[in-house]
Amino acid sequence: SNIKYGILSVNGVLIYIGLYFFYFCSNLPFLFHIQKNIMTNTTKAKSTSGKPCGPYRCVDYFDSLVTQGFPGIDTLDKIFDHVFKKYEKLECLGTRELLSEEDEMQPSGKVFKKLILGEYKWTTYEEMNIQVSHFGSGLAALDQKPKSLICIFCETRAEWMISANACFRYNFPLVTLYATLGQDAIVYGLNHCGVTHLITSIELLDTKLKGVFSKLPKLKHVIYVDKKSINKAEYPEEIQIHSFESVMELGAKPEHLSVSPSHPCSSDLAIIMYTSGSTGIPKGVMIAHSNLVAGMAGQCERIPNLGPGDTYIGYLPLAHVLELSAELSCLSNGCRIGYSSPLTLSDKSAKIKKGTQGDCTVLKPTLMAAVPEIMDRIYNNVMNNVQEMSCFQRKIFKFAYNYKLGKIKHGHDTPLCNKVIFKKVKSLLGGNIRLLLSGGAPLSPTTQRFMNICFCCPVGQGYGLTETCGAGTIMESSDNTVGRVGAPLMCNEISLRDWPEGGYTEKDKPNPRGEILIGGPNVTMGYYKNEEANKDYFVDEHGQRWFCTGDIGEFHPDGCLQIVDRKKDLVKLQAGEYVSLAKVESALKKCPLIDNICVYAESDHNYVICFVVPNQNKLTLLANKIGVRGSWEEICNHPCVEAQVLKEIIEVAASNAAKLERFETPVKVRLSPEPWTPDSGLVTDAFKLKRKELKKHFINDIEKMYGRS
């Protein structure tokens, strides 16, 4: 993302004169900075028991937890019946028109497909309501029964949301699977839940499903969402293949449409959402209508002025609870959703033809959710471009950045800086973003503050899990702190449970710490066909359902939570020290040479090693500097390059920003020429590391680095 043309280009003398003039003028508050309503020092949550361990509740809903966002509306189908009537003429779901596709040859010899896209085409709430009715009626005509499971295995798109709402209305519990799953995981998920009906896309049908139909004995109907025709003769006779349009046409027939749907009750199962499987086989989380209704109520309350004036850009996997709950919450308040993908998001995205516009530029969203990995990439790309600027341009950027940083900490905004210095950066996401929300994993304070400053909007962290419908905490938009995830939502409360083995207790100073337990109506029914895991993770006490997260939290005096560790990420070294793998990875990601990193340690050794996906541009420059030439793979495997990378890692680890102990600092490194993507199976769709899979992938290197081969 090139931002250097957004910085003033003048000669050196004028720059310095301009800096002094700008500094003088910027301190005239009535002209150049405005006071914002900040709540940093206010109490946002407190313990209901008076004990340091909690449970903590939001002070505005201290006496009782909220179960519904709309009084008397306790199921998802009732919410959307209400929404469709209230906002019927407003735009609802948008998809960009595909104008053409072109093959583009890369310098490496690879051919990438580039897209030329047009404007967004919109469906109104009224039109979506009709599509939902027709598709649900069509599924019923295809013998889909109420309370019988149906699976959606598809990329994020408008048809995904239409299908989901049809299932909610007709009481077809929806099973979700990530579109990036491998064939073994697909077979496991479909057979584990035993579905007879599957909604998918032509691409997934051809690349992932065609070869496994023989292993899916219960599957009878497959519906593809694309507006294309396929050769049904290529598929087994016992499986009926239908287009999305044909199912809607079937459902629109009077004899089918006249049959009233079997509406769910609040305790009925709405979704079985399979987790990302970062620690093993994915678990199917059973989510009732009442769980999602409560979770959405809590999330919507924390987003100020959420309503028909907002446009949300949907590009994360809808099979992930973060994206699904965000989109449902937006639709329930009359927002419009424009669909995108990680490969078409910006003007510089991989599938966007050079010279044409990415989805953010065309849509100009006001709301956006992202996982930390994506925000870290934006941070690194922008900072790399800053380093390529002239000396004077860098001085201006640094001056403006530090100036705004100081103002933000005192609750001020800087309209002049925003308009002159950061306008080009802000335009990368369309220019209209008013709130960025990060979830899925902890966001580093450095990245959070950077996004806050350069994109000129609040950047809040949220904390939740599939098992809590994505709800737990969300920062208030007026909270200008970083590194925290906010106070409990109005739908749940949070307790801390001592974990003495890891050194976390409620008696810790300055603040109580412990394992995070979330309780409330948003806590789900448990894992599908997995009683052993249910006993380990879910607890019912005093009429309240609790989920034991395995994450370690710390409550600050104002009632806001900070995620400080994860039980499964702690490794005890031979000498007795505990290493937090995630903490070390977060600190070292600020090394310019690193795009991604996995830290590894074993209890029978006294040192840490790491595996790194290097930044290709930075590493190539480094290799050239030390006289190493060759292919990208040869550069990554060269011992001199590895040694130089390790040297920079050690320097970053020892810096004041990282403050890593010597035993936490990796002593050996292995460079990975291939990036880690969800398709490779080494990270989840939220880009969390799959440590088990990474260990298998690098097992030979681990053996060598620990001297066992």
TrEMBL record:
Residues 118-528 form the AMP-dependent synthetase/ligase domain. It comes from the Eukaryota. Its EC number is 6.2.1.3. InterPro entries: AMP-bd_C, AMP-bd_C_sf, AMP-binding_CS, AMP-dep_synth/lig_dom, ANL_N_sf. Residues 583-624 form the AMP-binding enzyme C-terminal domain. It catalyses: a long-chain fatty acid + ATP + CoA = a long-chain fatty acyl-CoA + AMP + diphosphate. GO terms for cellular component: endoplasmic reticulum; lipid droplet; plasma membrane. GO terms for biological process: long-chain fatty-acyl-CoA metabolic process; neuron differentiation. The chain crosses the membrane at residues 12-32. The keyword Transmembrane helix applies. The keyword DNA repair does not apply. GO terms for molecular function: arachidonate-CoA ligase activity. Keywords: Fatty acid metabolism, Ligase, Lipid metabolism, Membrane, Transmembrane, Transmembrane helix. Belongs to the ATP-dependent AMP-binding enzyme family. This is long-chain-fatty-acid--CoA ligase. It comes from Erpetoichthys calabaricus. The lineage of its organism: Eukaryota, Metazoa, Chordata, Craniata, Vertebrata.
